[in-house]
Design brief:
Layout lengths: L1 H14 L7 H8 L1 H14 L6 H10 L6 H12 L6 H24 L3 E2 L2 E2 L1 H5 L2 H21 L2 H24 L7 H26 L4 H28 L2 H4 L5 H5 L4 H13 L2 H12 L7 H11 L2 H19 L7 H15 L3
Antiparallel strand pairs: 1-2
Helix pairs in contact: 2-18, 3-6, 5-6, 5-10, 6-8, 6-9, 6-10, 9-10, 10-11, 11-17, 11-18, 14-17, 17-18
Length: 349
């Protein structure tokens, strides 16, 4: 950890008197030049002679996303004292993999909004966004091969497989009111947390860090990803729609079994409320919904405090993410990564 310690120590000197910024702003400032190169690489590598491909890719990539996953790759590499440039292409791979899954997700979910804008499938239909998602997957693997770092290639290849399995598992649990918390966590581990973990792990791998530090970075990203998705599922019911950038209550309308509803169903079973179980069966399993059903679902979640319970779970995983960073020396990168955990849990969008 000598390189990382030296890097952190020298950076501490320049940041100790700096004003405290919002978490993502702190992280953005630390990796500003790296992120600029990632953005340039994204624009360069999403080009194609088939004009519709960059048009659709640009529609989503430029829609104001937080770039959180590639930021994690850049920051973890610098945390470990990395001085090369391969992390730029690897961070671009992460963003392409993420964007591809979003394109596919919106088709599967029949979503009309993404980040406050019309989703690609709402504009172009289903077929083209799926194929553009495949194009971005292919571009990501081209970049991985160019880097030629076999451990990183293995990490991202595995992540792609796990994400796909998570998405399929989510389809299997959708509309199934017998889904429990363990099954739900298995879904979000695959569809969300794995890419967070991979984004952080390759930062350590490309830096040739010791195995225990690489594992710690994966654990940090994995726990952060679980917390992130828990908060997403909380916000689907609790957020302001304009702030959230998508329709509030979409998960309910689609019959997605997320933790706020899973806990409400579990509470109804415990208390023997057959009328509530019948309500969930009608609305979630059979998708027989009226305009009054979402407000009633929200009233049940409020009665059992399942939204707050979901946020409590997110904080528990946030604590685990903080603990995973404990083996790294104090400094701006470690502090920024720790602050990201708090941002992800307390965010309103």
């Amino acid at each position: 950890m000598t390189n990382a310690a030296h890097s952190q120590s020298s950076a501490d000197t320049t940041s100790s008197t700096a004003p405290q910024a919002a978490p993502l702003e702190t992280l953005l400032a630390l990796v500003k030049q790296d992120l600029q190169q990632v953005n340039e690489t994204i624009i360069e590598r999403m080009q194609s002679p088939v004009a519709l491909i960059p048009q659709i890719a640009h529609h989503l990539i430029s829609a104001g996303g937080k770039r959180l996953r590639p930021l994690l790759t850049l920051a973890t590499a610098r945390l470990c004292g990395y001085q090369g440039s391969d992390h730029i292409k690897l961070a671009t791979c992460i963003e392409f993999l993420h964007t591809a899954t979003l394109l596919h997700d919106d088709v599967v979910d029949e979503s009309d909004l993404r980040r406050g804008k019309s989703s690609a499938n709402a504009i172009w239909g289903n077929q083209t966004p799926v194929l553009v998602g495949d194009f971005l997957f292919s571009r990501a693997f081209e970049l991985m091969v160019e880097v030629g770092h076999l451990p990183s290639l293995g990490i991202l290849a595995r992540a792609s497989s796990v994400i796909a399995q998570g998405e399929v598992l989510q389809l299997l649990t959708a509309n199934d009111t017998t889904t429990d918390e363990d099954a739900y966590l298995q879904v979000i581990q695959g569809k969300t947390a794995e890419l967070f973990g991979a984004a952080c792990k390759i930062g350590g791998e490309v830096s040739a860090s010791p195995a225990d530090q690489v594992q710690a970075l994966y654990d940090y990203g994995n726990y952060l990803g679980i917390a992130f998705q828990l908060v997403d599922d909380y916000l689907d019911y609790a957020a302001d729609q304009e702030t959230l950038g998508k329709t509030v209550g979409d998960d309910f309308r689609e019959g997605k079994m997320t933790l706020p509803i899973i806990l409400a169903i579990a509470a109804a079973k415990t208390t023997g409320k057959n009328d509530e179980l019948a309500f969930w069966n009608r609305t979630m399993e059979h998708l027989e919904q009226t305009d009054d059903d979402l407000p009633h679902a929200l009233s049940l979640m409020k009665a059992y405090d399942t939204l707050e319970a979901t946020r409590v779970r997110a904080r528990e995983y946030g604590t685990k993410a903080h603990q995973a960073l404990s083996g790294f020396p104090d400094g701006p990168y470690r502090r920024a990564l720790a602050e990201v955990v708090d941002f992800c849990i307390e965010r309103a969008y």
